Every structure is written in C-alpha cells, then in structure tokens.
Amino acid sequence: MSQAEQLRQQILDLVQDYHQAAFAERPFVPGESAVPVSGRVFGAHEISLLVDSSLDFWLTTGRYSEEFEKKFAQYMGLRHALLCNSGSSANLLALSCLTSPKLGDIRLKSGDEVITVAAGFPTTVNPILQNGLVPVFVDIETETHNIDTTLLELALSEKTRAVMIAHTLGNPFNLDAVTAFCKKHNLFLIEDNCDALGAHYNGQLTGTFGDVATVSFYPAHHITMGEGGVVMTNKPALKKLIESFRDWGRDCWCPPGVDNTCGKRFDWQLGSLPHGYDHKYTYSHIGYNLKLTDMQAAVGVAQLDRLDAFIKTRQDNWSYLRSGLKPYEKFFHLPVPAANSEPSWFGFLMSVREDAPFDRNELIAWLTERKIGTRLLFGGNLTRQPAYIDQPWRVAGSLERTDFAMTNSFWVGVYPGLSTEMLDYIVDSIDQFVKNR
Questions:
Q1: Tell me, what DSSP letter sits at residue 345?
Q2: Could you tell me the domains of the chain?
C-alpha cells in the first residue's frame, strides 16, 4: 500500500470510533426527549463511505453515483435510475422530459392539461405550471387521502395529456384504475413515489407503473442522502431526455470527465450550428444543472443496505400505532391501506372527525407541548395557497374532502428512529387528551 492508501485506511478506521463517541444512543425521557415525525437513521458505514468519497475530492457525480444508480435500478427492477439533487428536482425532470421536441407529436405542449390532486406536496404540482401546462385538480378519498379515481373521467378534456400524482404518505393510489385510465386515453403517467419507496401494489413495486417515476432522498424519506432524488424509467429514449434536462440541456450524453462517447464529437450538424460544432457544447433542451455530489451518493450506497429493514420497521411502527389508536375511532378517521396494496408508510395520518369534542389544532397544541412532532398533509388544499392564486388551473367537481383534510388531518411519525417507548408515549398522550375532553 502507498502512504496515501495507508493514511486513508487509518482515517476510515477512526470513523468507526468517532461514530461510537459522537452518536451514542440516548435514553428516551417522556416529556423531555423529542419524538420527531422523521429523521435520519445512520451508522458508521454511512460516515465511512462519505469520508471515503470526500478523500477522492471528486465533488461532482462519480463512482458512488454510478454504483448507486446501478444498484437502485436493480432494486426497483427498472432499466434506468438517474440521480439528481432532490426529489423536487426529480419531479421537475420527470415532467420536463415529456415536453421534449424529440418526442414529436406525443410531447406535452404549453396549455396541455395534467390531472393531479391539490392535497399534497407542492413540487408534485409545480413542474406542471413550470412547463406551461395546466393542472386539473380532483378530490381525494378520506381514508387513504389518495386520488378519488371515480373522478378521473370527469377531469378529462380534449386537452388532457398526462396524470401526475403521488402515493400519499406511502399508501399506494389505485393503480389499477389510474393505469387503465391512462391506457384508455393514451396519457402519460408520472408516478411520484417520493413518499412510498418499497410499497407494493398487486405485488409490484410502486414507482414501476408510470412512464416516469421519482423518489426523494431527503432526510425525512425512507433512505437519505441529505439532499437527493432519482428519476426512473424503463424507456431508453426517456432516459436520454432526463439526462439532457438534468445536465444543462446538452445533447451530449458523456459522463463528467469523459469525451467522445458517441465517436463523432466534432461531426454533428444540429440546429443551425456550423457542422462539427463541439457536441459537448450543443444544447437540445432548455435544461438545468440538477446533478448531486458523489459524497451524497456515497451515503445513499450505504443506506441501500438498510432499506428493507427500514421499510419493515416503518410498517411495524404504523401497525403498532394503528392498533393502539383503534379504541379512538369514534373521534378519528384512522388510515386504511389501499386495496391490493402493501404500503411502505411515510407517516401515520389521521383526521379529527367533524363531531369530535375537540379540533385538530387543540390536539396538535397538546402534542407539541409534550414534544411530540406532528405535520399537516403538506400544502392542504394547494388552490388556497398564496403561490397558486394567480396560476392557471381548474377543478373537476369539488374539493370538499381536500378541504376537510386541510382543516382536520395531521400525521405523526413512524420512521425507524422511533422506539416502542416513543410510540407508547404518542398513544398515551392522545389517550390523555381524549379522556380530558
């Protein structure tokens, strides 16, 4: 071994000791310790690969990015997985690639409509608007908080070209109905799988049904890179378009540090550029730079080894809360797994019934006082958010159940960092609150 290699190994050996000293587990003290809704769960292996990557000082995408993309595509059973810097960017890339002129007449054009829901995270909807398209909002089901698929035909118009929706908090939407609707009307399906990594529908992983799908690796999600996301597809033509939009809009597909993959770098004729203009500086799309660093990917490689265990713990924690809170169904709509599904839960979502002797805000205040974290269903009804007031959109039917979720729904955590003691504390706290009412 060279001196540099010896020093690298010494550094990585010390990482094990550092992790043990810096991140030792602390005992849970009810009322004093926080019970977060989400968080990063990691070990020495994640830090070791992060440090290993940093010692390369290859700060853009590199060997760990390639390893992660390959392993993640294999895990999902898909041909292509393309890393980017966030799940929100993944959604932007997934929709933007479908606007490419290279798709010819089937591409999405300005003014086309995309069916979605208003009860969700804004960056499922924002790419529709950012690409000059029109979101068409439909209502949700109360128990699953997923799209009410009976409203799809009502939302359809001669301008409808795509459906872009998320699996709410890890609970799959009705993929039988949605995929049949898209096939019937020749629509693109963009599957936001950011909150549902590892969920199954009819035995098939969610994120594998759409033309394009996305996953987020923000710390709240099933595995983390700190920031990060991935776009997935089985279609090589879309894979190339996603890469282009991610990498400045360039026509060239060479990875960083590589030249002349096509074998004709100075022999292209595109646009009205002179023949032979450098293909590395030829742009076929109005793109972005949405790559992530290899250091982030290194953390993801380590996290992949823990993914199945994380999913199982989330499912167990959700079931534990569901059992513990079942006696209070008189006061709450408790979550229900979608038919034909095995969810990979992101959180435990519940709604205060309209006839309950308390409201959601009172309960949240009580839980907050007891250091139990809660979240609302993201943006509630996005059509009521200030950012969307002057934006072009339309609603098919009413958003009555979306409004109910906006005022009555909230969720608590199920992530793997929660202990049984913490889950008991959540149930006991809700029990005390209800009995006091």
A1: -
A2: 307-436 (3.90.1150.10)
Residue with tokens 């098919």: 396
| pLDDT averaged over every residue in the chain | 97
Is the pLDDT confidence value at 291 over 80? yes
Whole-structure pTM over 0.90, yes or no?
Answer: yes
φ and ψ at residue 204, rounded to 5 degrees: -110, 140
DSSP 8-state secondary structure symbol assigned to residue 337: P
CA distances (Å), origin 15, targets 46, 67, 206: 10, 22, 36
Beta bridge partners of 394: 136
CA distances from 371 to 29, 37, 83, 165, 323 (A): 11, 11, 35, 32, 22
Contacts of 138 (CB under 8 A, 6+ apart): 115, 116, 117, 147, 148, 151, 152, 154, 155, 395, 396, 397
The CA-atom distances, in angstroms, between 364 and each of 63, 148, 170, 356, 369 are 45, 27, 22, 14, 8
Rounded-to-5 percentages of helix, strand, coil across the chain: 40, 15, 45
Looking at residue 150, its amino acid is T
Inter-residue contact 314 to 411 (CB < 8 Å): no
Tokens matching residue 135: 């979101």
Alpha-helical (H) ranges within 249-306 are 294-304
Check whether 182 has a pLDDT greater than 90: yes
pLDDT digits (tens, 9 = 90+) for 351-382: 999 999 999 999 999 999 999 999 999 999 99
**H or E segment and range at residue 113:** strand 113-117
The DSSP letter of residue 140 is B
**How much is the pLDDT for 1?**
83
Tell me whether strands 332-333 and 348-352 are parallel, antiparallel or unpaired. antiparallel
Q: What's the confidence (pLDDT) of residue 179?
A: 98
| Residue positions annotated with a catalytic role | 221
DSSP-derived secondary structure for 381-424: SGGGSGGGTTS--EESS--HHHHHHHHHEEEE---TT--HHHHH
